[in-house]
């Protein structure tokens, strides 16, 4: 990728990803996920939250040099962190991290988190992030509800 060939407002980041700005009012057709994929993820998060009374959150993006530390810093900023679970994915680092809040730690155990990661990994290996996240959310919520 040659930076000089990129549109105005675009750069190649240190990880090799292209980052671009979007001008207000201009259509933005280069979204990483389709509307249907985002609706599917939103439905899975909503259903899991309703059925377990645990707030499910998802994050896709860079987590810093140490993904575990990055998630530890990110988690407290998520909605309802005390009673939630965060599934964080850093695709460029091939990292998946799960964190749960203090109020739900007895229900979102290490076993439940591992079930979610295992459910997600096969889809991630096929570069299908949304399906992986949806699988993780569904498996984790089923395990939580069964407790």
Explain this structure.
The chain is of the alpha+beta class and 147 residues long. It has helices at residues 35-52, 67-74, 110-125, 129-146; strands at residues 10-12, 18-20, 55-60, 84-90, 95-100. Strand 4 (84-90) and strand 5 form a beta hairpin. Helix 1 runs parallel beside helix 4 (129-146). The longest helix has 18 residues, at 35-52.
Number of helices: 4
Distance between the termini: 50 Å
Strand content: 15-25%
The Cα radius of gyration reads 17 Å
Biggest sheet record: 3 strands, mixed
Record the strand order, biggest sheet: 3-4-5
Q: Helicity level, as a percent range? A: 40-55%
Number of strands: 5
